[in-house]
Amino acid sequence: MPAKVVDASVMAAWCFREPRAHEALEIIKSCELFAPFLLALELTSIARKKVIAYPDKTTVLSEALRLAITLPIQWCEVDHLAVLHLALEKNITTYDACYLYVSRDLGIPLVTFDEHLAKSAM
Fold first, then answer.
1. Is the pLDDT of residue 1 over 90?
2. Which terminus of the chain has fewer Cβ atoms in its 10 Å neighbourhood, N or C?
3. Looking at the 3D structure of the chain, how many domains does it have?
4. Percentage of the chain lying above the pLDDT 70 cut
5. Are the beta carbons of 34 and 74 closer than 8 angstroms?
6. What is the DSSP string of 32-80?
7. Averaged pLDDT score across all residues of the chain
8. What is residue 50's predicted lDDT score, i.e. its pLDDT?
9. Which positions ≥6 away from 78 have C-beta within 8 Å?
10. Nearest C-alpha neighbor of 33 from the set 7, 65, 67
11. Confidence at residue 19, expressed as pLDDT on a 0 to 100 scale
12. What percentage of the chain reaches a pLDDT higher than 90?
């Protein structure tokens, strides 16, 4: 089973049924998924924004979040100093650098819908 580091753009598309949900599912299915702990926080933040925008969908969005964070994702620690230097080197946010750090640390591909992050991962 191939291993991939997955970021919030892909996971949010899948779990919140965004326009690229089908594409996200194709990316993550039949894979061993890895992510920094940050992913759960980012998905929670996305869920909060969606609940504020669509309060009548609170239950559905909460369940989508619960499902996403209970997937068999291998949660990874990051070296925060290394993340800082990676963010500065690649001119990306420290959040994005966390995903890139895990990808590099494990030697496995990073999957993202963020074009800037994808270019930084090359």
1. no
2. C
3. 1
4. 100
5. yes
6. EEEEETHHHHHHHHHHHHHHHH-GGGHHHHHHHHHHHHTS-EEEE---H
7. 96
8. 97
9. 36, 38, 98, 101, 102, 105
10. 7
11. 95
12. 95
Measured CA to CA, the distance from residue 77 to residue 59 in angstroms comes to 30
pLDDT in tens, 60-70: 999 999 999 99
Task: Determine the average pLDDT of the residues in 88-92.
Answer: 96
CATH at 108: 3.40.50.1010
> Domain containing 67: what range?
3-120
The tens digit of pLDDT for each residue in 17-64 reads 999 999 999 999 989 999 999 999 999 999 999 999 999 999 999 999
Q: In angstroms, rounded to a whole number, what is the distance separating the alpha carbons of residues 84 and 98? A: 9
